[in-house]
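Tokens for SPRY domain-containing protein. Go.
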Amino acid sequence: MENDGMECYHGAAKRQRVSTVEPSVLTRLANIDVLGHLATFLEAGELCQVRATCKALGSSDESAFDGLSMAEEAARRIFESASDEEKAMLPRQDGEGWIELYHHLLMLRARLTFDQLVGRNIEYQEGDKAAVQWTDFSFSSAICGNHIMRAGKHWATFVSHVFLSVGVIRPLPGWDQRGLDSFNPLQRQFREDLRRERTSRWEWDVHFCQFYHNGQFAGQCWYSNWEGTDRRSIWEGIDNFDKDNDTLGMLLDLDSGRLSVYRNGQRVGILKNELAGVYCWIACLSIGGIGGSASIMRGYDVIDV
């Protein structure tokens, strides 16, 4: 009788545990649909805050979402609903969470903005983050730090009324908070600090490629790995470059590893090959500049690719 009683107790306890666990899992499965709908109205940072509000949203439950928290699962579902083109431009990288990937999807859909202003004497024009102005000469730079490119084709249009160089650079998180008096990626005093920023997402050795839009060096293109001597790219089409046009189109094609320049709706030439990994757009005040303005927008009106 004693053994029968113990078996009955254990059986009841087991049934009780099941009765308390199963509704919890079912509730989470139902709530994910609600959270997934709400998440479409949230920025990635806001979704992180949601995850931190309570254990139910932030903890992992392998029985429900394959080890993901409810917030991560919501982000994953939103990303999976993206277009094939968008997902091709955002391959998931090692160690990358779904909320981080969701952030990059939102940035891909947003207009381009200069999220980082590095150096003094540079500011936004009338609060517009897609337009900057230099109030005096200094090697200051504007970086699209939130818009990181990793795969696919990325178009940008620059319009400038200043001696400007534009191109691509590796992501430099936090550099706008350093309080630097000046910054241009070609300045040698920053090389060691720039190399420290390297991550596994940097590939090959073109970490920065700069094209002079106008000014005394208009048409020249320089690139660097921040190790040895900076190098000049000898590219076909420089003789056909229209130095008097303020509008410049650029195409970063990470499928082929090429950075190209466009003017008047047509490709002038390929500036540099062998680009791979992650990049951001950058605009720098170049030598000879004494002030002026520049703006950026996504896309370009191409006549002949």
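The two ends are 87 Å apart (CA to CA).
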